[in-house]
Amino acid sequence: MTNITGVIFTSLGGFMKLVKLNLLFIVAVIAGLGVFSFFPALVAMTAVTKSWARGEDVPIFRKFMEVFRSRYKRAQLFGVMTTVVAVILIVDIVALRTVQTAWSDALIVALFGITFLSIAFSVFTIQLLVDVPFKQAMKRAFFTMMACLHWCVVLILGLTAIAATVLFYPVSLLFLPCACMALWSTCITQIAFMSVEKRAERFNQETVSS
Question: Where are the transmembrane segments (predicted)?
Fold first, then answer.
């Protein structure tokens, strides 16, 4: 009975942490009118989920605000560059398509949204794991996902499932999806990144020994 109670309280504690982080992200974005705070808030939220993924129990508000302030300019720069890359990709897709229907437009928008979030979360997570310039972070994010395509698929499927939940239950936007997307993406990206790092380390060891 005690074990069951402990599991319930632990689960509720984790749920409330996600809710708190989600609300904090939404408030920060609204306070900055979106344009001035979305990417810094996204980086701050990702920093919190990165700590959770490493098993660290950090104070959510303090950690969020600390990263938000210290990485504001860098996050805005990364955000603008990521948006430019995403817009170029979607323009190319639209220009190359031959069929134009309401369903194809909706599919393109959905794929754009999921792809954009995948790129943004991956780039920001890797930039937090390894403090490198945007170009290097983008390269690492791309090669990490290409080297671990199965994890890339898992990442996109997870984000799609969370987005579908919001579509069918819009009220859930206030409580969970943003934090859940950040936590899911952070965990998957970190697993893929560490996998690639281990492969590179083994390759270097084999090269030196040979």
Answer: 23-44, 75-95, 107-130, 142-168, 174-196
Record the tokens describing residue 28, joined without a space: 């920060």
Reported pTM: 0.79
Q: Supply the DSSP string of 141-199, one letter for each residue.
A: HHHHHHHTHHHHHHHHHHHHHHHHHHHH-GGGGGTSHHHHHHHHHHHHHHHHHHHHHHH
Identify the band that residue 210 occupies on the pLDDT scale cut at 50, 70 and 90.
Answer: low
| CA separation for the pair 140, 119 (Å, rounded) | 11
Burial 192-202 (b: 16+ CB within 10 A, else e): bbeebeeeeee
What DSSP state is assigned to residue 130?
A: S
pLDDT (tens digit per residue) in 84-111: 877 777 677 666 665 556 666 666 666 6
Gap between the Cα atoms of 147 and 144, Å rounded: 5
pLDDT tens-digit readout, 158-204: 888 888 888 888 888 878 888 998 888 888 888 888 888 787 777 77
Closest CA to 126 of 142, 148, 147: 142
Q: What angle do CA 45, 121, 106 make, to 5 degrees?
A: 115
Distance linking the first and last C-alpha atoms of the chain:
57
Residue 94 has a CB neighbour count (10 Å cut-off) of: 13
Q: Which pair of tokens denotes residue 176?
A: 């969970």
